[in-house]
Structure formats: structure tokens, C-alpha cells
Design a protein that fits this description.
heterodimer, A: about 300 residues, alpha/beta, six-stranded mixed β-sheet, 12 helices, about 30% strand, globular, B: about 350 residues, mainly alpha, 14 helices, 4 strands
Chain lengths: ~300, ~350
């Protein structure tokens, strides 16, 4: 359904995306993960035709985006990370406008709007100005605006970021249902559990390239080792020194006084290095191998900090 | 799709109280203020009072007073003493006064430090009024020294030109160009909120996406000028001496030029804050140079030349002809139309060159 071939983008001398190959099958849900600056947003933008690639090609539903952009884009829905809706207009007016961009009009537009509002649960308040909506409702409208033309492929860029748990769950369940209904989905999220629950496969992007691609179970088996979580005590400068010391013995993500480490070698040398700088280890726990530890192993950074 | 964009932007504008005030209400306030300032400054309807003193029963003084009152825009007001006449000028209640002694020259009391643009016409008119009276040879018995005529090719002006013939177009042009700011704000806002990304991701050619963002403001600009000239005509008695077609074509050119300037603003601006600060000052300066607030006719020659570097002055020259000169046709204002279209092409060219769809 979506095929990226040698896709790359340069901004002057800087290469944001080198040459990326990726195929998303029809009806598949693919998770796209990557640290900040990895090239994830640039990749999505090129796939949507928002950014012109420096090289390579994008094909949507077998249609080349560069040579037949209107046909290719008609199959695609974008749900950007920004709340890309008009606050002063009602949900209905927003969807009328976004539907019209896809050539919808009259009864067909009304029917699609009704469907999209139903999908995101906003029918009851469709006539209200969006500025009166809660953050979660705005997110749901953001999703509806990307779905109103019932695309074959939808690209969701952090669709649940910054919303209350109830709305987040609603959006999550909506996307899950869209997947079940056969829509092809490319999904990026901060939330590991969302990606694990929704996606058939995951592509991890780092430094402008796909560093791993496969089913979650495969990625975990191939790349994730058992991780450690260490809670430390000590002065801030001591904790900083412990962070640096741990980094010499593995991949480390720090969250205040807690270090999550994927050790290169044994635990003993790691513990010794931390204690040598004067830090006290209050707690040490083994962590199960999962997508997060796989991500850490591949990128050297934590997903929550980076995605 | 462009129809949907127009509908959307009109809805957005109707909910934007600030934009509505600056596009529709502020110009009316300015028109009333400036129009009133010029109107009550002295015209045939509200003549400027000139205090005059002469000895009781002095035939010479009475003749001068009659001559002043017969001069358009002035009326003589007798005062009790020469000192009082002088004092009234000193206290700024009056621009000038006349003291007519029994013999010798008449004293014209006027602040000689006042700008010549303000002082000159009053001094000239009162001097002429006095000369008509005191000339040893009655002037009406002599062949005329001078005849006032418009040069060939220029249509005749209206008989009585009201101040609103000048202040309505002046403020219509000044605030009409503010549609450039509204247009650019819309672009920057679309980028900030991400709706521009949505537009680019839709099956809409980029030229059409650009047009869809510009066209609504063209129509808003046309509505704005229609409103302002409508209020000018119906509310303030502004007349259209030339053809309505010429007024319409000129107004379309003004709006087109302003929207093209909006594209240029959108291409170089990075934030709404920057636009609000720098953009509005640029438009204000352009309006000042172009003669929207102070007519260019009272400016020194150098500034009049500088005025031609902004489209506002060309627009105002055209409007003046259409509103004041009888029978003015589209052909008569061709230089203004040409200049406005030239500026539009320049603004649009620079804007397109600098515009980044993918910023």
C-alpha cells in the first residue's frame, strides 16, 4: 500500500534522511519509532507529499506520488501531531472544509462527515466551535479530519500525545477498529503499549535510516537483552558522575535518580563503576526484554525521551 | 475547493473581532476624524472667522470687512479693538486677523512662524481681499490679470469639493492595504497550526493551495472597499464625479496589489508577532508616504517624488481623479492602474521567489 524506495532528504549540507526503503502492506499497521531528529517526521512528510524528497520515490496504492500526486494523495489521510484544525470553526465546518479538499461535496460529503464524527464520538457536539472543546476532543477531531475522505492509508503522527487517559483510550480504540476494518495504518507514538498492541510490525528509524524492521517479537528476540533498573542515592554531581560511569559499561537512559541500563558486559563491572564515583545503589532490578529495551539497544536512547 | 476555502476564511474572519475592527471600523473612525478636521478648518459651508478692527464708521475698514466676507471660506468678525484682534491670533483661537487704521497700510496679524503650507493660503486670500478693496484703481474696471484654468486633457473638477472627497479614498487606501497583513497572518497561522501541512497533503496542486489562501482575501478586500466607499457616499456625501466603472476597476487593482503584498509578507515573515509589529508599521509608513493621511499636494516636491515609490500614491491619484474630476474614465486613470498592476507583479514575483511551501 505504501512503498518508499531510496527515499532521502537533504537540507543544504545536512542529510535528514539518507536513503530509506520501506513497504507497508495493505491492511497492515506499521509502527514507526525513532528518537528526535532521527528523520521520522521528514519521512512521514515525504510519504504524504508535504516535503519534496531529494531522492527516491514514494508510491501509494501502486501510484507514484511524484508523477500522479492527486491520485496518490487521494488514497492517503494524514493526522499530524499538531492540532491542525480551525479553533474558531465548529467540527462540522472543519470537516466540510477538509472534505472539500478531497473533492467531496453534497450528500457524499455529509455522509462522510457523519461517519467520521461517529467514529471519533463527536456527533453530539459537532456544531460547537472547536475552541470550546477539551484537548482530547480536539485530538479526536484532528483524527476525524484525516479520516473524513475514508482514505485507504492513514498516517498518524503521535495521535494521542498530550490528551487525558479517557480520550487517549478512545483514540487508541478507534485506530484499532480502523485497522480491523482493513485500513492501512502507519503509526508513531510515545507509548510503547500502544505500538505493541496496535502494530503488526515496527520500523525503528535512527540517523535518517531504518535500523530495524520486523515484527515486535522478532525485534525483541534479535536486539533486546535483559535490562537493569538502578535507583541511586547521592548528590546531583555524584549522580551525574554515576550516569557517565554507567555509560562506559552499557547503554543508559536516566530518569532522575533512576538509571535504565542495557549492560555491555556483566553486572559486576557496572555496579563497581557506579560505586566508584561515590553513588549508592538503593535498588537494582532486572527488566524483561521488550520493545523498549530493543529500542534502547538499537538507538542508545529511551523511547519515552526520544520518540 | 477554492469555494470551500473562501467560505472557511470568511467564517474565520467573521469570528475575528480584531480583524473586523481594523478592516471596517477603524477606517470609518479615521474618515470621520480627518474629514471633520478638514471640514471645520474652513470651507464655504463653515467659513473661517477673521477678527477685524477698524474705527467706528470708517468706510475703508467696512469695505475691507465686506471684501473678506465675500471671499470663499472666510467671514469677517468685528472686534472692539486692535489689541483684541491681535490677542485672538496669539491665543490660537483664530488663524489671522486684520487691523485697518484710518490711514496707512492694513495690518495682517498672522503667526509668521506657522508652516507656509498652513499660513500661505490664508495670507494670500486676505491680501487679495484687502487689495481688491484698497486698490487706487478699481480692479473690476481693469482687464483680468489672471485666469484660473485646468490644463488641457484634465476633466473639470466638481464645484464644491468636500473634505470627504479626500479623506474617504485616503483611508480606504490606507486600510485597504491592511488586507495584506490579514492575508499574511492567515498564511503564518496556517503554518503554525499545521493546517497548511494538511492542505499540502491533500490532492490539491500547490498553486491551487496558494490561490485558495489568497483568493478569499481578495474578496474580503473588495467587500471592504465597497463598504468604505458606500459609507463615504451615503453617510458623508462623497461624490463620484467620474465613471463608476473606473472606480470599480481602480478598487480591484488596489485590492489585487494589496493581496500580492500579503503574499510577499507571508513569504518573508516567520511569525504572527513579527507581522503584527513590523508589517503594520511598514503599511503605516507606506500610507504616510503615499499621502493617505496628509495629501501629497501639501508635501515638498522631494516627498511627492518619494510617494511614487509606494502603490498608495498611485491609487490616491487615481481615486482623486475619479471622485473629483467630472467624466473621468478608465483610460484617464490608466497610469494609476498600470502602476498598481506593476507593483502587484513586483510584490507577487518577489513573494513567489521567497515563498517556501515546505518551511
Amino acid at each position: 500500500m505504501l512503498s518508499l524506495r531510496g527515499l532521502g532528504k537533504d537540507y543544504g549540507a545536512r542529510t535528514a534522511v539518507a536513503a530509506l526503503d520501506l513497504d507497508v502492506e495493505r491492511g497492515e499497521c506499521l509502527g514507526l519509532l525513532g528518537p528526535n531528529g532521527a528523520g521520522k517526521t521528514t519521512t512521514i512528510s515525504m510519504a504524504c507529499g508535504v516535503v519534496t524528497p531529494s531522492r527516491g520515490s514514494v508510491s501509494i496504492g501502486g501510484i507514484d506520488l511524484a508523477s500522479r500526486p492527486r491520485e496518490a494523495k487521494a488514497k492517503l489521510g494524514l493526522v499530524p501531531q499538531d492540532l491542525a484544525v480551525y479553533d474558531e470553526l465548529s467540527a462540522l465546518q472543519n470537516l466540510r472544509y477538509f472534505g472539500a479538499l478531497y473533492g467531496l461535496a453534497g450528500a457524499a460529503l455529509a455522509s462522510r462527515i457523519d461517519w467520521a464524527l461517529g467514529v471519533v464520538g463527536l456527533r453530539d457536539r459537532a456544531g460547537e466551535p472547536v475552541k470550546h472543546y477539551s484537548g482530547g476532543m480536539k485530538r479526536r477531531l484532528n483524527l476525524a479530519a484525516g479520516l473524513v475522505h475514508q482514505p485507504e492509508l492513514v498516517i498518524l503522527d503521535e495521535p494521542t500525545v498530550g490528551v487525558d487517559p479517557q480520550s487517549r483510550n478512545h483514540i487508541f480504540e478507534t485506530v484499532k477498529q480502523l485497522g480491523k476494518d482493513g485500513m492501512t495504518i502507519v503509526y508513531t507514538s510515545h507509548y510503547m503499549e500502544e505500538v505493541e498492541a496496535l502494530c503488526d510490525r515496527v520500523a525503528i528509524v535512527d540517523a535518517g535510516a531504518i535500523v530495524a524492521l520486523g515484527k515486535i517479537s522478532e525485534l525483541v528476540a534479535q536486539h533486546a537483552g535483559k535490562g537493569l533498573e538502578l535507583e541511586l542515592a547521592g548528590a546531583p554531581e555524584v549522580l551525574d558522575a554515576a550516569d557517565r560511569a554507567a555509560a562506559a559499561h552499557g547503554k543508559v537512559v536516566r530518569d532522575g535518580r533512576v538509571l535504565r541500563v542495557l549492560p555491555n558486559d556483566g553486572i559486576a563491572s557496572l555496579v563497581a563503576a557506579i560505586e566508584a564515583v561515590g553513588a549508592t545503589i538503593v535498588r537494582i532490578e532486572s527488566r524483561q526484554a521488550n520493545l523498549e529495551t530493543a529500542f534502547l539497544a538499537l538507538t542508545g536512547r529511551g523511547l519515552r525521551d526520544a520518540a | 475547493m477554492i469555494g470551500a476555502a473562501i467560505k472557511k476564511d470568511v467564517w474565520l474572519l467573521l469570528r475575528d473581532r480584531g480583524a473586523l475592527i481594523s478592516l471596517f471600523l477603524l477606517p470609518i473612525i479615521f474618515i470621520v476624524t480627518f474629514g471633520s478636521m478638514f471640514k471645520f478648518g474652513g470651507d464655504s459651508g463653515t467659513p473661517r472667522p477673521i477678527p477685524i478692527w477698524h474705527a467706528p464708521g470708517d468706510a475703508r475698514g467696512e469695505a475691507v470687512a465686506r471684501s473678506v466676507s465675500a471671499t470663499e471660506g472666510f467671514t469677517a468678525v468685528a472686534v472692539g479693538s486692535a489689541e483684541e484682534a491681535r490677542r485672538l491670533v496669539t491665543t490660537s483661537a483664530n488663524d489671522a486677523a486684520l487691523v485697518v487704521p484710518d490711514t496707512g497700510p492694513v495690518e495682517l496679524v498672522i503667526d509668521t512662524a506657522a508652516p507656509v503650507q498652513a499660513r500661505g493660503p490664508i495670507q494670500g486670500a486676505l491680501t487679495a481681499a484687502v487689495m481688491r478693496t484698497l486698490s487706487p484703481v478699481p480692479l473690476d474696471k481693469l482687464p483680468p490679470f489672471i485666469e484660473v484654468k485646468s490644463p488641457p486633457g484634465i476633466s473639470h473638477p466638481l464645484e464644491h469639493i468636500s473634505s470627504f472627497q479626500v479623506t474617504v479614498p485616503g483611508n480606504a487606501v490606507l486600510f485597504g492595504f491592511y488586507i495584506a497583513l490579514t492575508t499574511a497572518m492567515s498564511f503564518v497561522g496556517e503554518r503554525r497550526t499545521g493546517t497548511w501541512r494538511r492542505l499540502l497533503a491533500a490532492p490539491v496542486p500547490r498553486w491551487k493551495a496558494l490561490l485558495a489562501t489568497l483568493v478569499p482575501y481578495f474578496f474580503v478586500g473588495v467587500a471592504q472597499l465597497t463598504f468604505l466607499f458606500g459609507v463615504g457616499a451615503l453617510g458623508f456625501g462623497m461624490q463620484v464625479a467620474g465613471s463608476l466603472a473606473a472606480l470599480a476597476v481602480l478598487s480591484l487593482c488596489v485590492v489585487f496589489c494589496a493581496v500580492c503584498l500579503g503574499l510577499l509578507f507571508a513569504a518573508v515573515a516567520t511569525s504572527e508577532k513579527q507581522l503584527g509589529g513590523i508589517g503594520s508599521v511598514v503599511l503605516l509608513v507606506m500610507g504616510l508616504i503615499g499621502g493617505c493621511m496628509v495629501p501629497r499636494i501639501v508635501m515638498p516636491a522631494f516627498m511627492r517624488g518619494v510617494g511614487h515609490m509606494v502603490p498608495h500614491s498611485w491609487a490616491l491619484d487615481g481615486y482623486y481623479d475619479v471622485l473629483v474630476r467630472q467624466g473621468t474614465s478608465i483610460a484617464d486613470i490608466a497610469p494609476s492602474i498600470g502602476a498598481l498592476l506593476g507593483f502587484a507583479v513586483l510584490f507577487a514575483g518577489l513573494g513567489l521567489w521567497r515563498f517556501r511551501f515546505e518551511r
